[in-house]
Each structure stands twice: as C-alpha cells, then as structure tokens.
Amino acid sequence: MTLADVLRPAIAQRRVGLLYDAMLVMGGSALVALLAQVAIPLPFNPVPLTGQTFGVLLVGVLLGSTRGSLAVLVYLMEGAVGLPVFAGGGAGLARLAGPTGGYLVGFVFAAFVVGFLAKRGWDRSVWRAGVAMLVGNALIYAVGLPWLSLFVGTQRAFLLGLCPFVVGDCVKLILAALALPAGWKLLRWFGKT
Fold first, then answer.
1. Residues 107, 50: contact at Cβ < 8 Å?
2. 102-113 pLDDT per residue, tens
3. Please, what's the largest Cα pairwise distance for the chain?
4. Beta-carbon count within 10 A of 168 CB
5. I need a labelling partner for 149 at 20 to 30 A (CA). Which of 44, 91, 95, 188 fits?
6. Domain limits, the chain
7. How far is Cα of residue 96 from the mean position of the Cα atoms in its chain?
C-alpha cells in the first residue's frame, strides 16, 4: 500500500476510484512540471540543476508503480506536445531527443521502481526509503548518462551529467527518506492505518 492508497475514498464505486486515480496521475504530472521549473542552469552544461528528479521519485513513492509511472508519462506527453513543462519552461520533441532526453525517459523507470518498492513498505523506514530513492536515482542516471554521452562523449557525460548533481541528489534523497516515514507516522496518529 502507498500513501495514496491509504487516503483513497472509502466509496467503493468504480467511477469514484477511476476519478481518484486520474486526479492523482494529473496531480503527479503537475508536481513534476512545477518542480522542473525550479531550475538552475549550470555554465557550460546542457543539464540544469532542477527539483524535477525529486518530484519524479516522490510521485512514484506516493502514487505507486502504475500511477506514478503514468504521471511521469503524462508529464512527458505534455512536454512533447509543446506545453512548457520541462526544465526552465522547455517543451517539444527536440527536448526528448536532445542531450537530456535520456534523463526524461529514465524518469518513467525510476517512478515505476520506487513505486513498486513503496507498495512493499520501503517508504516506511528512513533507511529503506533512502535505498529506494537511491535505486530510483541510479535508474535515472543509468538511462540519462549513456544518452548524454552520445552528445558529449562518455568522459564528459560523467563530468557534466553526474558529478555536479551528486550533492543535490543526496540532499533530496535524505529529505525524502525522512519525510516519507514521517508521513506514515502522521497517518497512524490520525488513525488512518
């Protein structure tokens, strides 16, 4: 169970459940788009520093594997059709095919995997939530770095696409690892679990 599952309306009507899921997917997409706008361009680097990764991992953990990855796919489709949802207000298929396209595709896999782990309770302890976020981050880099290397070469891909982001990713990972178990404790306090 994820936090979104616990907060699901008690009404057993199928339409209400589908509406709830659709709202979560659209809300998750909006959260990722919003956090993508928190972008700091780095000099001489095609990859900006954003809150996007944090949003993707958070959406996956909160919504679960299916809804989380769907939210990220909706986000990518919104950007592909021209909505300015990518980092720094970017949009279009050129962004998906450009140097950062691999990271964008990696977001889908990361959201799915961290959502899968969250459904199995990995978001309920600080250490396991941290490991889940670390796995999600690794998946983003596993897809993003090889794609970036097609544009800048392998050595420069690590220098431009990994090194500048390690500290920020660690901070985001720690924040999420602390917040998720706290969310579960808060729900228990209110008698929701």
1. no
2. 999 999 999 999
3. 54
4. 15
5. 91
6. 3-188
7. 16
